[in-house]
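Help needed: design a sequence for this.
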């Protein structure tokens, strides 16, 4: 089984290429290959192709991730399947670098391909239709190689294997943040108080145009708006004010009782600590 995810690269192309080529993740770069360019100078070669673009745009490249279920495929076969997928997606018209990472519990491919093709210098059009084409091709290659296939469903679009599995078991960072927000909304009087309560529960809050949160141990911040339509700043404010109700949950989103206990326990602990030290609590 392979789960696919694609996202645009709008800056730091060289850093993205360096990351996927990390020798510690690619068995000393033995699991690195390329098409239409040399992987050592791919960023420079991509830039030349981009300079010839017939259309303006912000995308420098696209980063396609193909993640396999643990134990279902070895790294050599995964790399070969990744090359077939990259060739099918780019149709022999885009430079790309393909790497296979073996440092996690699941083997996964990274494919970074130039946003502009080197044939007529038109840009790759990434949309829902092209994404489903990628997913269907990945599924086809899995079947041909005797691997299982993800059952189509609302929850599997655009997720890495790790995210897919985490959501199934109710342990994804986004899933936990959703539960935390849903739990606190009935308890607070304002959006600002909700952020304070999240902070008290251990979340780091990053202000800005889009409010982002990061749980202890989480690598990257999560924007609230990426949790869904019910979690934008405006929607949360409306829910707090009683002007909006959350859409019906899928059964798997009912999980998380232990997290609710953890949140309340964390808040009580911080309150007790603040009282003992004579400091004013932020809650």
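Sure. Designed sequence:
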């Amino acid at each position: 089984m392979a789960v696919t995810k694609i996202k645009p690269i709008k800056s730091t192309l060289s850093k993205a290429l360096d990351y996927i080529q990390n020798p510690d993740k690619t068995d000393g770069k033995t699991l690195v290959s390329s098409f239409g360019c040399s992987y050592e100078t791919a960023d420079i070669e991509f830039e030349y192709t981009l300079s010839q673009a017939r259309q303006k745009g912000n995308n420098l490249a696209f980063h396609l991730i193909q993640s396999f279920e643990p134990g279902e495929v070895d790294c050599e076969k995964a790399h070969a399947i990744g090359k077939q997928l990259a060739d099918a997606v780019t149709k022999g018209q885009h430079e790309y670098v393909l790497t296979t990472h073996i440092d996690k519990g699941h083997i996964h491919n990274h494919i970074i391909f130039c946003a502009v093709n080197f044939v007529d210098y038109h840009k790759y059009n990434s949309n829902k239709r092209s994404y489903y084409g990628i997913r269907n091709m990945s599924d086809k290659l899995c079947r041909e190689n005797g691997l299982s296939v993800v059952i189509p469903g609302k929850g599997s679009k655009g997720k890495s294997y790790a995210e897919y599995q985490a959501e199934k078991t109710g342990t994804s960072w986004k899933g936990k943040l959703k539960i935390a927000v849903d739990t606190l909304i009935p308890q607070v009087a304002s959006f600002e108080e909700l952020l304070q309560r999240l902070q008290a529960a251990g979340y780091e809050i990053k202000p800005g145009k889009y409010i982002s949160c990061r749980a202890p141990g989480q690598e990257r911040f999560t924007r609230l708006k990426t949790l869904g339509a019910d979690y934008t700043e405006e929607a949360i404010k409306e829910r707090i004010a009683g002007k909006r109700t959350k859409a019906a949950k899928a059964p798997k989103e009912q999980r998380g009782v232990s997290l609710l206990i953890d949140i309340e326990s964390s808040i009580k602990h911080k309150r007790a600590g603040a009282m003992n030290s004579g400091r004013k609590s932020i809650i």
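Residues 214 and 220 are 7 Å apart (CA to CA).
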